[in-house]
Design goal:
Elements lengths: L1 E5 L13 E4 H4 L4 H11 L8 E6 L5 H14 L4 E9 L2 H10 L4 E5 L11 E7 L8 H11 L4 E5 L10 E5 L2 E6 L3 H10 L2 H9 L4 E4 L6 H11 L7 E2 L20 H8 L6 E5 L6 E5 L2 E3 L1 H11 L12 E5 L5 H9 L2 E5 L7 H5 L5 E4 L3 E4 L7 H15 L3 H12 L1 E12 L1 H14 L7 E2 L2 E8 L2 E2 L6 E2 L4 E5 L4 E6 L7 E11 L9 H4 L1 H11 L1 H5 L6 E2 L1
Parallel strand pairs: 3-4, 3-5, 4-9, 10-11, 10-12, 15-16, 15-17
Antiparallel strand pairs: 1-7, 2-6, 5-6, 8-9, 12-13, 13-14, 17-18, 19-26, 19-27, 20-21, 21-24, 22-23, 24-25, 25-26
The structure holds alpha-D-glucose-1-phosphate-6-vanadate (VG1) and cobalt (II) ion.
The site of cobalt (II) ion (CO) has 7 residues, from loops.
Cofactor: Mg(2+)
Enzyme class: isomerase
Catalytic activity: alpha-D-glucose 1-phosphate = alpha-D-glucose 6-phosphate
């Protein structure tokens, strides 16, 4: 029942920040998905007879690729595959299943916050046995194999029923269709005090959780409404749609504007949150106040001990380099390790496995801990709720008190999306070329203390990852960072990250863009993005 199919390589199957992401029509080319999946399997060793987890965020083409992956897993010798019912698994839930059932690894089908639909984005990511995204050594091997692949193996069989819970066989391989939510919800109950959160909600505390028509709908319904007793209507846009209702399932102030407006209104709820396409990102908004992801990381780290799963304290905190330094001050106070990694969750895996870090975060709305090896949107929401349930103060009070104690890191990211690739590369190359000459000079009255192209030396496996972003550090602790996105599917996206540290509490209520105005001008003077790309302004400001 297995056959070997001859194929020819595609030259564009290089995994980016988080797996291979392309437009759906690219994935629909004959053999395209098959080539990539075979390249993944060929880059691995010793999986025969072992377990593979497969699931995705439910976007268009999810079900088709799940069938292909199942048939290829059987033909390649996996012993068992666990599939989320209907092909649905949030990224953190998939990470948990891999860990809980001791799987060899997993295939996560998602393009995260990118739009979905017949002409939008799709993606495939391989996660290793610790539940985390494959490290660069593996993604590089996958890409190398994809460039020379000659054949793939696949079962000739009818499609598997992925909607009915239970076990089936595909050749010798067992296919288990599992509840997409149950194991994940049980894990959350071990980490957080559901009783306390239930009492908070019962006392009249109101919240909204916007799933943006993406994967967290069923997770939010089960956990927030069913287990925690939040009234119906707490979960918004909770029916997963293959095209996310035509929206970007990206929980930021641009794409979750309705939620933001609701939280800013006088009669709005106390707490609002949203998650992205595959459920690993989170947006946190308190009544009248947006919490930046960088601040959220710091505030969660400072209060985590209030939740059952983190009672013993944190071993360390890790953040991606462009993420603000707010968490660094918490680590300093707690006298625990602080690690600065390149963008992308794969770099946190070693630190978590080595128990050097407990909580990790990225400025791009990603926060998570050692409970899985992915960032986890709903986890961040529950940790916030647990903290609020214990402290019984508002989100705003937590933020103001935090800034008063640690100072405030004003922070913003400006994205120039859909820029032509050559101009984007020119911007970065030009910055790189002048790095050495910058220290000691001034722009917009700001003196440059240091400038470099960030390289990460992994303290665990000693691997080195270079060219991870251009950093310009100013005297006084402000900085601007430039890098190109590694998750887009058309053209290039230039990201500019801008940060200023403000210790003075009398200056903690400034409007963010205003507080960063001179740095924003400095970033443009240094990079000439607008001149190079012809853009007048960023396409997204977060
Ligand atoms: C972006 C974010 C990064 C995040 C990655 C995957 O990458 O900046 O922090 O880890 O997306 O997130 P890039 O290379 O486009 O800047 V997800 O939720 O899209 O899996
Ligand atoms: Co995501």
């Amino acid at each position: 029942m297995f056959k070997t199919v001859a194929t020819t390589p595609f030259d564009d199957q290089k995994p980016g920040t988080s797996g291979l992401r392309k437009k759906v029509p690219v994935f629909q080319q004959p053999n395209y998905a098959e080539n990539f999946i075979q390249s993944v399997f060929d880059a691995l060793e010793g999986y025969e007879g072992k377990t593979l987890v497969i699931g995705g965020d439910g976007r268009f083409y999810n079900r088709e690729v799940i069938q292909i992956a199942l048939k290829m897993a059987a033909a390649n010798g996996f012993g068992r595959v666990l599939v989320g019912q209907g092909g649905i698994l949030s990224t953190p839930a998939a990470s948990h299943l891999i860990r809980k059932y001791g799987a060899f690894g997993g295939l996560i089908l998602s393009a995260s916050h990118n739009p979905g639909g017949p002409t939008e984005d799709f993606g495939i990511k391989y996660n290793i046995g610790n539940g985390g995204p494959a490290p660069e050594k593996i993604t590089e091997a996958i890409f190398a194999i994809s460039k020379t692949i000659k054949e793939y193996r696949i079962a000739e069989s009818a499609d598997i029923d992925i909607d009915t819970i239970g076990t089936q066989k595909l050749g010798d391989m067992h296919v288990e269709i599992v509840d997409s939510v149950a194991d994940y919800a049980a894990l959350m109950e071990t980490l957080f005090d559901f009783e306390a959160i239930r009492a908070l909600i019962k006392s009249g505390f109101t919240l909204r959780f916007d799933s943006m028509h993406a994967v967290t709908g069923p997770y939010g319904k089960e956990i927030l409404e069913k287990r925690l007793g939040a009234p119906e209507g707490t979960c918004l846009n909770f029916v997963p749609l293959t095209d996310f209702g035509g929206h970007h399932p990206d929980p930021n102030l641009v794409y979750a504007k309705e939620l933001y407006d609701l939280l800013m209104s006088a009669d709005g709820p106390d707490f609002g949150a949203a998650s992205d396409g595959d459920g690993d990102r989170n947006l946190i908004i308190g009544k009248g106040i947006f919490i930046t992801p960088s601040d959220s990381l710091a505030m969660l780290a400072a209060n985590a001990h209030l939740a059952r799963g983190y009672k013993a304290g944190l071993k360390g905190i890790a953040r991606s380099m462009p993420t603000s330094g707010a968490a660094d001050r918490v680590a300093e106070k707690l006298k625990i390790g602080m690690y600065e990694t390149p963008t992308g969750w794969k770099f946190f895996g070693n630190l978590l496995d080595a128990d050097m870090a407990t909580i990790c975060g990225e400025e791009s709305s990603g926060t998570g801990s050692n409970h899985v090896r992915e960032k986890d949107g709903l986890w961040a929401v529950l940790l916030w709720l647990n903290i609020l349930a214990v402290r019984r103060v508002s989100v705003q009070e937590i933020a103001l008190e935090h800034w008063a104690q640690y100072g405030r890191n004003y922070y913003s990211r400006h994205d120039y999306e859909g820029v032509d690739t050559a101009s984007a590369n020119k911007v970065i190359d030009a910055l790189r070329a002048k790095l050495a000459s910058l220290p000691g000079t001034s722009v917009q009255g700001l003196k440059i203390a240091a400038a470099d192209d960030f390289a990460y030396h992994d303290p665990v496996d000693k691997s080195v990852s270079e060219h991870q972003g251009i950093r310009i550090l100013f005297e006084g602790g402000s900085r601007v960072v430039f890098r190109l996105s590694g998750t887009g599917t058309s053209g290039a996206t230039i990201r500019v990250y801008i940060e200023r540290y403000e210790p003075d509490p009398s200056r903690h209520d400034l409007e963010t863009q205003g507080a960063l105005a001179d740095l924003i001008l400095a970033a443009e003077e240094l990079s000439a993005i607008k001149a190079q790309t012809g853009r007048k302004e960023p396409s997204v400001i977060t």
